[in-house]
Amino acid sequence: MFVLMLENRSYDNLFGWSDLRGWTPDGVPTQADGLVGKAQFGNVDTNGHVRPIAPGAQYRLGFDPGHEFSDTLVQMCGPTNAQAYLAQAVKDAANLQNGQYPPLAKSANDLGFACSLALYGYDVPTGMRGFTPDQLPVLNFLAQQFAVCDRWFASMPGPTWPNRFFALAGTSWGLDHSPSNGTTIAASLFDGSKFGNGSDSLLTRLTPSEWLVAHGDLPQSWSLRGVDAHPGRFLHHVELMNTLQSGRLGDTCFIFIEPTYSPIDSFRGGESMHPCGDVRKGEALVEQMYNAILASPYWEESILLIVFDEHGGFFDHVIPDRDHVPDMPLLKRTPPTALTKNGFRFDRYGFRVPAIVVSPYVKQATIDHAFHDHLAIAATLAKIAGRTHPPLLDTERFAIATDLSPLLTLTQPRKASEMHPCPHALPIASAAAPTINSGAAAFNTLNWPVRNTYGGA
Predict the structure, then answer these.
(1) In 3-state terms, what secondary structure has residue 185?
(2) Domain range holding 230?
(3) What's the pTM value of the predicted model, to 2 decimals?
(4) Which of 90, 158, 363, 404 could form a disulfide bond with 69, CB atoms 3.0-4.6 angstroms apart?
């Protein structure tokens, strides 16, 4: 199982204007839940102006839409329901009263995306635009050739780090924000530099020979406690592709692929599809990884999940209410700490994120309407690797997680020689440097060792 986790995009931001059509896994004609064919949505900004959702997004923004916990609260609840938190949003200082999340917005037009952009003084109309399919040829090709999930939600309504922890450990250990300062790091991590207890993530539950992390610059998964005992399991992208080509994966059953983030320049040079970088670099990485797996001896036994960690502050019209997401185990209220500084009870999912499932056992143009969140990664791995007893993870969220096996409906694999060639990512132009942000500061806290010792570039 390969998982390529990219950054900070909502489903509607990437696929809302794609008009994806196909069949459910059961063969019923259907259409993905995007923006085409619906009345135009719009959100009110801080001045009371309605800002419409429109196509034609910029490949690289000169700003980073807010997506910390407090930003997402404003976006999810809308400026009316989140009125008490508007002044605190920019500093991510929303301390939930009695641990209670405000009521969610009643409709997509009541969401607070335009308000959130305006609170930062950003270009609201630009931030409210989504991509058209011709702008993202690689992702749209794969969505049409394999399966797209239109009900995949971030595991919590907030930023990258806690959502990536949910993907690899089924929990964030209470972290509800980007750990961007020394006080948070020292107070929240067991040994001052690592999360977890050393035996509670996929990378520590599996044996070292069963997993690999392929990375560009700084692998965020290095922050998991216990993984530093196995630095040889962290490979650069080029090393992974060479290993695939030569058929030397051995016992490996789980490969987690992290993009180049480039936090040193606020993600400007990264390929993670972060809004401060150019999305075409992310498309090029997706194209590269897909073609490497397709050309490898592992194609006919592979599943590649391309998924985004969180919505990045971009509009999505599907509100994660009880009509769209299941209930989850409710945690008891705890006072704010350096780890859970907003008093969040982890009783809400985040917004939808794009997710594509690529496998020779997936029918072309499959559209999956089933609910998933990042726990589906561990649930799917447990099923295909036969790691169900004891459970691969111990968290309550893992116990209710869905898996992706219903999408593998073909009894015979689609041959690599019969696949249509993947289009190339569009060429990239230069742009001005974006503003520094707390997410970059979080990545810059990683104590990543010397590159020529542990791989990387």
Answers:
(1) helix
(2) 2-33+132-454
(3) 0.93
(4) 158
pLDDT per position as a tens digit, 405-426: 999 999 999 999 999 999 999 9
DSSP structure class, residue 258: -
- Structurally, how many domains does the chain consist of? 1
Cβ contact 41:35 at 8 Å: yes
Q: What is the mean pLDDT of residues 35-47?
A: 97
In the prediction, which pLDDT does 440 show? 63
d(CA 302, CA 287): 16
Round to whole Å and give the CA distance between 38 and 272. Answer: 30
- Cβ-contact 311, 10 below 8 angstroms: yes
Alpha helices in 50-110 (DSSP H): 69-81, 86-89
Query: Is residue 266 situated within a structural domain?
Result: yes
Mean pLDDT over residues 68-86, rounded?
97
E strand segments, 313-392: 355-358, 366-368
Tell me how crowded residue 309 is: count the other CB atoms within 10 A of its CB. Answer: 27
Question: Are 21 and 32 in contact, with CB atoms under 8 Å apart?
Answer: yes
pLDDT in tens, 344-356: 989 999 999 999 9
Q: Please state the separation of Cα 198 from the chain's center in Å.
A: 23
Q: Could you read off the pLDDT of 377-394 as tens digits, one per residue?
A: 999 999 998 988 888 998
Burial class, 380, CB count within 10 angstroms (exposed 0-12 / middle 13-18 / buried 19+): buried
Per the listing, tokens 């969610």 go with 104
Average pLDDT score over residue span 239-249: 97
Distance spanning both ends of the chain, measured CA to CA: 25
The answer to whether position 262 is within a domain reads yes
How far apart are alpha carbons 348 and 101 in whole angstroms?
8
Assigned domain for 71 exists: no
Please state whether beta strands 54-55 and 129-130 pair in parallel, antiparallel, or not at all (unpaired): parallel
Q: Is it the case that residue 196 has pLDDT exceeding 90?
A: no
User: Which residues, including other chains, have CB under 8 Å from residue 136's CB and lie 6 or more apart?
Assistant: 14, 279, 283
Q: Which residue intervals of 11-112 are DSSP H helices?
A: 11-15, 69-81, 86-89
Cα(371)–Cα(403) distance, rounded to whole angstroms?
10
CATH number where 445 lies? 3.40.720.10
Helix (H) / strand (E) element for 235: namely: strand 234-236
Query: What is the pLDDT, as a whole number, of residue 389?
Result: 84
Residue carrying the six token digits 């990045």: 312
Query: For residue 66, is it within any domain?
Result: no
